[in-house]
Amino acid sequence: MSYAAADVFARQVAQKPDSVFGLATGSTPIGLYDELAKRYSEGKLDFSKAKSFNLDEYYPIKRTHEQSYYYFMNHYLFDKVNFAETHIPDGETDNPEQECVDYDAKIKAAGGVDLQLLGIGFNGHVGFNEPSSTYMMRTNLTDLTNSTLEANSRFFSEGEIQPTTALTIGFGAIFSAKKILLLISGAGKAEIAKKLFDDKIYTDIPASLLLLHPDVTVMMDKAAAEG
Ligand code: F6R
């Protein structure tokens, strides 16, 4: 899955060197980022004209915190490849509302996202757009659901304070991406993955809204596909 996803990234940047990539964190894309770092070190990839925008960041969180998405992205990808510009919502800001407005403006000024990478939560969230009766268009500060807090608690050590809110881009930016690549990995995701192929939009599964986008590729590993 990671190798095939890296091929999609490689094609994108070869066809359009100044591509804008939408990036995700979590365990799912780590294999892809490792593969991109490997290909870059072998001289097979060049991101020197490309930009990236991450989907989300915990709030509040220090950039130096090992669980911040800032730290994650630098560790797994940005320290190893050569993006011209990288952007992540600022988990340290004291004005999150302004940060959200500014983040959307930066994506727009970059010309929107060419290729949006997504993972999916056990509850069907994309970015941190959690199941809800309403979905946000713009970048916003959102409460994380208990299911997401539980799923991500594995990354925080015992006694450590886990942020319960996050900054996340909304469906406006996700839907304005020209292409979407959704990665689904692991047996734990088999159930939610299956729902995406029902040809139905479930109001309580944010990822099912992606069926409305004209260019979505879903790649999953064997364990996720076995559902
Ligand atoms: C991460 C993100 C989340 C994750 C999802 C799956 O930036 O936006 O939607 O993609 O929670 O996480 P993993 O891959 O850890 O199962």
Task: Give keywords.
227 residues, alpha/beta, Rossmann fold, six-stranded parallel beta sheet, three-stranded antiparallel beta sheet, 9 strands, globular, binds fructose -6-phosphate
Q: List the secondary-structure elements in sequence, H or E.
A: HEHEEHEHEEHEHEHEH
The CATH class name of the domain at 2-19 and 27-166 reads Alpha Beta
Helix residue percentage: 25-40%
**What is the approximate shape?**
globular
Tell me the structural class: alpha/beta
Which ligands are bound? fructose -6-phosphate
- For the record, the CATH architecture of the domain at 2-19 and 27-166 stands as 3-Layer(aba) Sandwich
- What is the fold-level CATH name, i.e. the topology of the domain at 2-19 and 27-166? Rossmann fold
Count of helix runs = 8
Question: What composes the largest sheet?
Answer: 6 strands, parallel
Q: How many E strands? A: 9
| Average pLDDT score | 97
Oligomer: single chain
How many whole angstroms does the radius of gyration measure? 16 Å
Sheet with most strands: strand arrangement? 4-2-1-5-8-9
> Gap between N and C termini, in Å?
16 Å
Strand content: 15-25%
Low-confidence stretches: none
